[in-house]
Amino acid sequence: MESKDNLVESVVGVIFSKNRQECPEPIKAEVQGYIPKWLQGTLLRNGPGIHSVGEMSYSHWFDGLSLLHSFTFKNGEVYYRSKFLRSDTYTSNMEANRIVVSEFGTMAYPDPCKNIFSKAFTYLSHVVPEFTDNCLINIIKFGDDYYASSETNFIRKIDPQSLETLEKVDYMKYVTVNLATSHPHYDSAGNTFNMGTSIGDKGKTKYMVFKVPPTVPTTVADNKDSKKKSPLKNAEVLCSIPAHRLLSPSYYHSFGMTENYIIFVEQPLKLEIVKLATAYFRGVNWASCITFHNDEKTWFHVIDKRTKKPVGEKFYTDAMVAYHHINAYEEDGHVVFDIITYKDNSLYEMFYMANIKKGLSQETTLTSIPSCKRYVIPVQYDKKAEVGANLVRLPETTATAVRDKEGEIYCQPEVLCEGIELPRINYDYNGKKYRYVYASHVEWRPIPTKIVKVDVVTKEMLVWTDEMCWPAEPLFVPYPDGKEEDDGIILSSIVSSDPQKSPFLLILDAKTFKEVGRASVNANIHLDLHGIFIPEKN
Hints:
Blueprint: H1 4-17, E1 23-28, E2 30-33, E3 41-46, E4 48-50, E5 52-53, E6 56-57, E7 65-74, E8 77-84, H2 88-96, H3 116-124, E9 138-142, E10 145-149, E11 154-158, E12 165-170, E13 179-180, E14 185-186, E15 192-201, E16 204-212, H4 220-226, E17 236-242, E18 256-257, E19 261-266, E20 269-271, H5 273-282, E21 290-292, E22 298-304, E23 309-310, E24 315-317, E25 321-331, E26 334-342, H6 346-350, H7 353-361, E27 371-378, E28 400-403, E29 409-412, E30 414-418, E31 420-424, E32 436-441, E33 450-455, E34 461-465, E35 469-471, E36 475-478, E37 488-496, E38 504-509, E39 515-520, E40 530-535
Parallel strand pairs: 24-29
Antiparallel strand pairs: 1-8, 2-39, 3-7, 3-40, 4-7, 5-6, 7-8, 9-10, 10-11, 11-12, 13-15, 14-15, 15-16, 16-17, 18-19, 19-22, 20-21, 22-23, 22-24, 25-26, 26-27, 27-30, 28-29, 31-32, 32-33, 33-34, 35-37, 36-37, 37-38, 38-39
C-alpha cells in the first residue's frame, strides 16, 4: 500500500507541477468497452500544461501556460492530439527561457537585459496594466469561430481540428471591457452572450452584458469577406450596470441566463483597482488585489433582455463567493437560478502551488466547502405585500424572498446539495426548468476524485470513481434522438497518479452512470479546466 507521503508526492508531481509534452499529430486511443457509433465530433478542452519555464515556476496552478487537447470520435474510434497555445505570452517566455509575462497569481519582472524604466513607463501609462493572452480556461464559440479564453480582454482564435493558434483578438476593439468571463451562454438562434467589466470608462466602472450574433453570409462575396472579419464586429451591448463601488468592482467568473433574463451576481469579492494598478511596483501579484468583504451584501441583478434594462427591484443575499452558475429558468413570475457558492475565497487560495502539497497531506484545506444553492427571485409579485412576507409562491422550493423596511428584497436559498464543483447540464435545457446536474465531487483534497450526477428534485446522487484517478469536468453530450433530459453520455478526461495506469477518456451512460467505455491514450495528458463538444457537421 502506497504511503500517504508518497501519494502526495506522486499527485503533486504528476498532476500539478510536471510540464506536459504536446502531441501535435493525432494518435489512436485504445478502447475498452465501446464508443457509440453515433458519437461523431470533437471534444476540445483547455487547461494549464506548463508550470515552469527555465529555472522559474508559476506560483499558482491556474497560471500555467495553456495546453489545448482534443479527443476526436469517428466511427467508433478515438484520436487524441494536443498543442500548446502559441500565445504572445508563450512565445515571450520561451524566447527568454524564463517567465517574463505576469499571470494573475504570478508577477513577472523585466528581463535583466532590458530597460526597467521602459517597463515601468508601460505600467504607469495605464490605469489597468496590459494583461496576458495566456488563454487557458475555456473555449468560446463566436459564430463559426472558436477561441481559447481566460478572463482578460484577450482571446485567441484557434483551429478546432488542428489546434493551431490563429489571430489574437482584443475585446476592447469591439466592446469596452478590460475583463470578461470564460463562460458565455448561447441561444437557439446562435447568438453568444457574455459579460465583462469596463474599468474607468468615462470615469465609471461598469458591468457590460453583450451579445455577438452568428455570422451568416448571404452571398459569395459576403462569404469571402466574412473570413476577414471577426464575428465580434457585430457585438452589441445589451446593458451596462454601474458597480456599487467605482474603484472596487466585483470579481465574477460566470452568470446565468433564461429565455428573457440575464442573472448577474455582484458579490463582495472585490477587485481593488488602485491596488491592481500599483501591484507591479509593490512587488505583489494581481490576485492579492482581490479581497473578500464578508460584512457586505451580495447583489442580484436581473436584466430583461427585451427591455435591455435591469428590473426595478433590488435583490440581495448574504456575503458569498461564487464561480460557477449551473442553470436558471423562469416559472410563474419568478426567476429561479442554481449556483455553487462558498463562504470565503479559500478555493482560489488552495491552488497556490505552495498550498497544494499541504492540502493533499491533510483534511482541513477548504475552510468553506462548495454548496449548491437555489435562489428564487420574484420578478412579478404583489406590490402591496407586507414587509417580512415571503414573496416566493413556488410550492416546490424552500427558498424565500422577503421585502425589508428599505424596500429591498432579501433572498435566502434552498440548499440542493454539498460538495460539488465544475457543474454541467444538458445544455438543451439551459434557461429551462431542468432536473440533472453533472459535476465533480470535492471532498478534502484540492482536486476531485469523483464524478457525480445530482437529481435536484429528489436530491439523489449517482457516483463514478476509480482508485488514484483524477477526473476533469464532466461534459454531457445528448443522444441524437434522445427524448428525456438525461438521454446521453458523459465525457471526462481522466489522469492517474498510478504509473501503471494510462490516462484515458471516460464515457458514462448519463442515465445510469454506468461506464460505457474508456479510451486510453499513450500521451502526456494534463488535468484540464473547461471545454466544448463540437459535433461533426452532416
